[in-house]
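Input/output pair, single chain:
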Amino acid sequence: MSSRTINSIAADNKKFAEIQDAEKRLKKQFPELSHRFREGKVRTLGNSEQVDPFASIRLIKEVVELFLINSKSLLIGKKAVFVVGMTGAGKSTFCNWLVGHDLKIEGPPADDSDDDAPSTVVVVPKEGLDAPFDMGHSMQKSATFLPTIRCISDQIALVDFPGFFDSNGFEIRIGMDLAFKQLLELPTSAHVMALVPIGGFGSDGRCKTARDQLEKLRRLCPTGFKQVGDSMAEDKQLPKDKRCKLTLGITRAHKKFTKGSKELMKQAKTVVEAFDPSFTDEGSVINICEQMFPKPQAAQAEGALLNRKDPRALFLEKVIQRRVLPNTSYDCLDIHAMDSLRSYLCSAAFFQKINKDFESTKDIPLPTVQLTETEKNIEWNSGKVATLLSRAWGLQKNITDSTDKIVKASKDLKDKGVLLLQSEYLEIKMLVEFDQPRLTFAFMEAERHAMSWLIALNCKGFAKIEEAVKAMSDNQFVTHEDLDRFKPEALRVKEQLDKLATSQGYKDLKELEESWVANVSVVVAAAGGATATSTFCGMATVTTIAEMSGLAMVGLAGGVLLLVGGLVAAGVAVSNQSWWKDKSKDLINTQIDAVKAIGEAVKAQEEHNTTMTKLKNDLEQRCVH
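Output:
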């Protein structure tokens, strides 16, 4: 289990100002987004460079919330045309043309120039229209963060959606994909104009850049086809009434921008139709430059016809004929982005956070142990006995609470399909409810790791219980009758734990414990380390590790050993102390209860894993490969 460190991403003052403006306008704070664009990185743990996994989760959540809140009022009750594509595909240029602004090409034709710099498009604002869409010229960085929405008429809204594959980090990409799927549900009908630059098709025949963009589109708007081996096949699991029809626009396919544009355009159509047969329909693949920069004679001919609709309006009508159906449960998320998220969710830092939240030790009121007057008169012993018994009960309570959580989690997953993480954290609950297979699976994997580590904590408690009971047995602190009650229960649970350890790839329980200690140390060190110590019955412990583990009373064994040592040093024959027999019986009973609880937890986790496997198989059937 690793802990991921931050990879700094450039700060973006323009987008930070955009978030601040949105916060004032919407009267809602988006702290993780603000931090991301102001600092150029996701929030970290303390003063370390270790990413806070929950900051990543909150960042995804905030992106979705902001996109929806900002766009909702402009889309409800209207038809919406979403213009999508990678950063630098020409979305804003196209939107400016579509709403009525004039365009002008500056620079020599690409075919006639040896200069690598292509011609550029300049928007000539038309009086009476809204300000032009903000245009960027970077292939990695969108000009704006939020979707820009303009109402073309009372019935139609045009949405310039931020670029795919930009460099804002995987959290932003996941959030944008989820938001896009949600936005499709808001208008009365949704229509997608997807733009792909001609340069992505290249001349080597592989066309990887274009294929990556087409794959992204197919995830966001399932068309009914999927990759099977080296060829495409119909996705029969997707009903025909849920399949999307997109319009694909090839941009920069013009001699002013791209050398050999005509041949590349032919190749682009061939590649697109082979990649996804849904684009074989007439009018589904369009050369956008032919629309925005028509030949002069064609423009004159159209202008000569009285009462003929504007070519922009005609083009828009064709786009609206092809409808995208919202289907939010279909797998839409990028595999690479999800792999990054999963690495966070399976990190030691994530476990540290949830374990600290699940920890009940700090809130357990340690019971008061009542000692008789005779017991109190044994000055060297009374205080330690009270503390020892109190801590033993506390340890048993902590293990029982952990077991109750594991058992409930297993039952809820089996009966309701609800994850423990989903019920404990609102931000995770929100993301799981998007019903995205890969996202749900990522949290399932995180929960599987969390459950394993909760069991590992109980394993640590089990080892301490065995150590304490052995110390008491060796020094005749317990009767043979009490010991005989403890041994078979401990042996049964030990076998369960060994079986669980081997099922998770460890040689035995000891190796599982060693892995736990190593990873806890990594987390503590990454968080800045801990040197503070506390003393229980004279035994010093590192408080940060103890508190993080949820077993702050694992000093039980040490307390027993010190108490035994004190008795032996004093020359006291424990077997002759009848008052201690009752107390030792109480102590053994608490340890038997704790061991039984560990056994119940192991059984529950096995059931949890079985349910996880079934759910995982179901989710994989819904994933686009």
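The CA atoms of residues 19 and 333 lie 24 Å apart. The mean pLDDT is 76.
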